[in-house]
Amino acid sequence: MTGTTPALRLEGIVKTFPGVRALDGVSFSVLPGEVHALMGENGAGKSTLMKVLGGIYQPDEGKIIVSEQPVVMTSPLQAKSKGIVFIHQELSLAEELTVAENIYLGELPRKSFGRVDWQKLHEQTNRILEMLKVGFDARTRVGDLSIANQQMVEIARALTVEAKAVIFDEPTASLTDAEKVVLFDVIDNLKAEGVGIIYISHRMEEIFRITDRISVLRDGQYRGTLNTAETSEDEITQLMIGRKLDLSRNAVHHELGDVALEVRGLSCGSLFRDISFEVRKGEVVGFYGLVGAGRTEIAETLFGLREPSSGAIFLNGEETAIHSPADAIAKGISLVPEDRKTQGLVLGMNCRDNMTLPQVDDLKAGPFVAEGAEIAIFDQYRDRLDIRTPGWKQLAGNLSGGNQQKIVIGKWLSMHPSVLIVDEPTRGIDVGSKSEIHNLIRDLASQGYAVIVISSEMPEVLHVSDRIVAMYSGEIIRTFTSEEVTEDNLIQAISGIRPDKAA
């Protein structure tokens, strides 16, 4: 850390919405040249605090102080002019424009008579891009870039002003491991220049790798700041959720029932080949592998989103054909998709209607939907899943990521499926909600559901699964029981090393 006078300070910030005190007297500071993590469960107040800082919301009480000068932020543009810059998780780029036009949108350099100075624009942009070590230039169309490279354009935007504090909100969510290294180099460069970094992430390994201090919010209140080098994951977790987490390996404590789902020799073009497995009632089968291994594609085929090219699917011992999601739902298969925002929810619709959407036809009383029945379903699963919302009228888009995921899970549970497929159940979700969803998955299995969990997180798949299917490049390499699996043999399997080749 290079300075002791804060680059940015928040004092006693209060923000209230109807029915919710989102921030309750929060104080927070970031020093020049430090990376300061802001952590908390979904719904703890992190996003609201950042929106106050970015001029999107006005605080009801409290002060924002930049370089020891009190300021009022009335818009994101004003925040940027004060040196407060945001790198958002959700990309907000104009895909038809070039990289340079996106980076300097609204601030294009001009020549006489208001003409754009294209040469200066491209030179300025390329200087920033060189610092970021990216493989594209100022003239590249943003729509032609990968998601990861679009994220780099967002970061480049931040570097156009003399930043006092840069806020990164889950910046690695769409980056590969190699791209993460570049991002961390960029953060190191900003540190060296005396810029304060606020780093919001649920990924503990990143937090402990790159941050100097960690501040924790819980239920809209500031709970403390710790030096990263002097704390542990357990201590941070306890501060976040107010309790210890049980992340031990799962052990089965209930009897498994009959085979609910059996797949024999299932193939789908070049996506996956000759897939065979079974899931029993009361069992959680985890699918683990690298991105592109074919795990999600198998789930989509079972849910009727893809037509298999060969093979057979058996439900409760009977061969069946599934041609559409409606088919799958009718036969008792439900899918919680990986991307909850675009595939699992209608963000502009309220919580109740999202939860009851697949069964609207069954809830009709004459030509109308029976509102009482809808509310009863919502109330049941809100309580069961601990969905934190002021009421059913709240729009799904206004909920935190963890609560959104619970709405999606509740939606399918309310259909009482016999087979539940959950793709990346805790993506973008905090540790407390993760633990709740893990316990929920185990609880569902104990109630007799057959559950398939697809996950890219090894601790998750080890924790919730009775058996683990390891996939590589569209094939099943090995299936492990919870007793025989180790981190080493699981890594070998997803790297394509079969048991007979392993040393």
Automatic annotation (TrEMBL):
ABC transporter domain location: 8-244, 254-498
UniProt keyword list: ATP-binding, Cell membrane, Hydrolase, Membrane, Nucleotide-binding, Repeat, Sugar transport, Translocase, Transport
GO cellular component, one term: plasma membrane
Topology versus the membrane: Peripheral membrane protein
Enzyme class (EC, first level): hydrolase
Record localization: Cell membrane
One Gene Ontology term of the molecular function aspect: ATP binding
Enzyme Commission numbers on file: 3.6.3.17
Keyword hit for Hydrolase: yes
Domain of life: Bacteria
Cross-referenced Pfam families: ABC_tran
Record family assignment: Belongs to the ABC transporter superfamily.
Matching PANTHER family: CARBOHYDRATE TRANSPORT ATP-BINDING PROTEIN MG119-RELATED (PTHR43790), D-ALLOSE IMPORT ATP-BINDING PROTEIN ALSA-RELATED (PTHR43790:SF3)
Name this polypeptide is given: Ribose import ATP-binding protein RbsA
Gene: rbsA_6
